[in-house]
Amino acid sequence: MDVNGLKQHALNIRRNIVTQVYTAQSGHPGGSLGCADILTYLYFEEMDVNKDNAGSASRDRFVLSKGHTSPALYATLYEAGIINEDLKSFRQLGSNLQGHPNMNYVKGVDMSTGSLGQGISTAVGMALANRLDANGKRVYALVGDGESEEGLVWEAMMAAGHYKLADFCVIFDLNHLQIDGNIEDVMNPTPLDKKAEAFGFNVVECDGNDFESIAKAFDAFHKEKEKPTAIIAHTAKGKGVSFMENNYAWHGSAPNEEQYNQAMEDLKEVK
Ligand SMILES: Cc1ncc(C[n+]2csc(CCOP(=O)(O)OP(=O)(O)O)c2C)c(N)n1
Ligand SMILES: [Mg+2]
């Protein structure tokens, strides 16, 4: 693993996340910035998905269950060379890059998401289909901690545990914030680790903004052959942009020109 190379990809992705939201003057920067390292690791280290096989049936799949963080997915697919859309068309009329990802329009988007809770359910269905096909492919779903307040998430977890889907990995983006504030105040879904364990998962924790820590978590997923894996990834919402970090006000707001310039300054170089 080339950590510096991954950091450079993540930086490019973060710059493109902020540029998309700034240009559109709408979108969700906080949760997008927080998961940029996880997406970088998935697309540049973990999954067997690349620009040549992205359209094929037999490959790993990724479902961005927290679909509002589409800027992170688009920026990652762009960085990986899977799409070459104009990222500045994000959320514009006629653009394929809708506020929430649409699998019918954007190459590399494996499921249309945005209605929280549904993505993980479809990912479990994909993992079941892979078992029928005996193709050995893996399915990954990224779920927000606020999203995990949706009952549907736990039906999907129950099914994955019940069917012992060892090739399924759910990553919980634990940034402790959702749209209206702290998850613990809005509707406390913790402890996610104990809940996932009770639903039959192999549970691993990691620092979701540290590549060494992320790598260890995915290694533990590979080693587990009996159960599905839940990675509890501790992240900072808004990671990388000083005034957005850990501030839920940046869940779904766009920076003005001065703030955009400050963000680009914060994201000038790899730290
Ligand atoms: C079913 C459903 N209910 C409500 C919303 C509106 N909504 C969009 S994002 C969000 C909060 C999500 O928080 P979290 O999952 O923690 O995301 P992150 O912190 O990673 O941005 C809400 C309530 C939605 N998209 N879908
Ligand atoms: Mg959250």
What percent of residues adopt helix (DSSP H or I)?
40-55%
Principal-axis shape equals globular
Tally of structural domains: 1
Oligomer: single chain
CATH architecture: 3-Layer(aba) Sandwich
Largest sheet: 5 strands, parallel
**SSE pattern:** HHHEHHEHEEEHHEHEH
Q: How many β-strand runs? A: 7
Ligands bound here?
thiamine diphosphate, magnesium ion
On the 0-100 scale, what is the average pLDDT?
98
The proportion of residues in beta strands is: 5-15%
3D architecture notes:
The protein is an alpha/beta fold and 271 residues long. The chain has a single domain (3-266), classed as Thiamin diphosphate (ThDP)-binding fold, Pyr/PP domains (Rossmann fold, 3-Layer(aba) Sandwich), CATH 3.40.50.970. The protein contains ten helices and seven strands. The chain has helices at residues 3-24, 29-34, 36-46, 70-79, 118-133, 151-162, 183-187, 192-198, 211-223, 257-266, and strands at 61-64, 139-144, 168-174, 177-178, 181-182, 202-207, 229-234. Helix 6 links the parallel strand 2 (139-144) and strand 3 (168-174). Helix 1 (3-24) packs across helix 3, helix 1 (3-24) runs antiparallel to helix 10 (257-266) and helix 3 (36-46) packs parallel to helix 4 (70-79). The structure holds thiamine diphosphate and magnesium ion (MG). Thiamine diphosphate (TPP) binds at residues 30-31, 66, 68-69, 114-117, 144-147, 173, 175, 177-179, 237, 251. The site of thiamine diphosphate (TPP) has 20 residues, from helix 2 and strand 4.
